[in-house]
Amino acid sequence: MADNYKGLSTKHLLGIKDLNERDIQLIFETADTFKDVLNRPIKKVPSLRDVTIANVFFENSTRTRLSFELAQKRLSADTINFAASSSSVSKGETLIDTVNNILAMKVDMIVMRHPYPGAGIFLSKKVNAQIVNAGDGAHEHPTQALLDAFSIREKFGDVAGKKVAIIGDILHSRVALSNILCLQMLGAEVMVCGPTTLIPKYIKSLGVKVEFDLMKALNWCDVANMLRIQMERQDIKYFPSLREYSMMYGVNKQILDSLDKEIVIMHPGPINRGVEITSDVADSKQSIILDQVENGVAIRMAVLYLLAGQKP
Amino acid sequence: MQNLTLLDGQKFQITIKRLCHQLIENHDDFSDSVILGIQPRGIYLANRIAYELQQILPQANILNGNLDITFFRDDFRRREAPLLPNATSIDFIIEGKKVILVDDVLWTGRTIRSAMDAMLAFGRPKKVELLVLVDRRFSRDLPIEPDYIGIRVDSINSQRVIVSWKETDQEDTIILLSDKD
């Protein structure tokens, strides 16, 4: 790295929006070495031994929470976990009170998932701790975007110049926004594809292509990132039925084989098997879904290492 | 800045060769020993030593790896930004082997402490030795001493010792840099 190296340009990781290209490359280079550490017989390093991290989850999560927790343990950080459903939040405690009480127990860093967009940004202005956004409503999910781009880089050697189609429920997806910002910053071309009702009206202002025909999108792209239909966020009907959605926008092996090139299939999980993609696609050689999960731990280790390493 | 050349040219070569012969005295044919160069600057010395040993012992299989110690340092959160890691490449097991840690300059000893920690992820060595090209005497923070020394230097904290290598910097030299008063 250059002589004027000063680490990440930000104190918190609230969204890809706060990062620049150098930050992302720095995270990737650091993640490369952590991936190497994760493949050793002893997968632990002592870097964060004097750091305490609270994982505060106001929304359900499997992959992200486990991945963060594992990343923290591999770095030797002390961790505490908090799930809103089993806490005093259900008794009416506010977000700031909850977090300040956690911080009173001498916690250095908060990893937070929250159903409201901007919750992390709000918190970063009100409390004295480093905040890592693990998903805020339909806004951003920065570590997911970083691990997606890292997986593309690993598969192709570089992200620049690659064509990535993000397919499915763009409207409710935080993965979509973070992915668009991250991939564009790294020089990839991005297209979104889905039913008209699930494509936000002003998405074009981000400089992405918009396509409503699945086959055209698949024929154009090198990588298809299939998003989950988020039934829990759909307060009204956006399409007639799941069956109809999967007929129009579901990817199966037959469709993949009919393309004249081999494309890479990604999915941030959890998969609705048989809706966005069928099982034979999810488990096929073209799918890098499990590589994404593996890379998730390395990316999160890199983010935590680079953030926590700043002088308190 | 004032520069004082401590070692260069043929003398540099002789020093490397002497270190190799000292190693052979203790390690015979290296069937039971491995060399670990400490990233980032120790790997050049380790590669040179491994190369020279191979010239002297054509039949031997010299195992040489690179060890990165970044995640094992004791100054994390004590500097402005965390140091960036380098690659570790050790494609052998050090369990039960005699390990020779190799670094260019020994100063406070903190790097070596970290290296001993980092090394343990690859097994429990039978014995660990330390080889350095430059020993900055009387400046240790920790009770660590080298087993093989290229040259000894008396220096003060504000001075810096820079080792350059033919492979990356055109010539083999050791220079002592001092601030001009």
From TrEMBL, chain A:
One GO process term, biological-process aspect: 'de novo' pyrimidine nucleobase biosynthetic process
Role noted for this protein: Catalyzes the condensation of carbamoyl phosphate and aspartate to form carbamoyl aspartate and inorganic phosphate, the committed step in the de novo pyrimidine nucleotide biosynthesis pathway.
Sites where the protein binds carbamoyl phosphate: R63, T64, R113, H141, Q144, G269, P270
Catalytic activity: carbamoyl phosphate + L-aspartate = N-carbamoyl-L-aspartate + phosphate + H(+)
Record's protein name: Aspartate carbamoyltransferase
Provenance organism: Arcticibacter pallidicorallinus
Positions of the Aspartate/ornithine carbamoyltransferase Asp/Orn-binding domain: 161-307
NCBIfam families on file: asp_carb_tr (TIGR00670), PRK00856.1 (NF002032)
Automatic annotation (TrEMBL), chain B:
Tagged with keyword Glycosyltransferase: yes
Signal peptide residue numbers: none
Pfam families, sorted: Pribosyltran
Domain Phosphoribosyltransferase: 5-159
Keyword annotations of the record: Glycosyltransferase, Transferase
GO function terms (MF aspect): glycosyltransferase activity
InterPro entries: PRTase-like, PRTase_dom, PyrR_bifunctional
Xref: PANTHER family: BIFUNCTIONAL PROTEIN PYRR (PTHR11608:SF0)
Protein name: Pyrimidine operon attenuation protein/uracil phosphoribosyltransferase
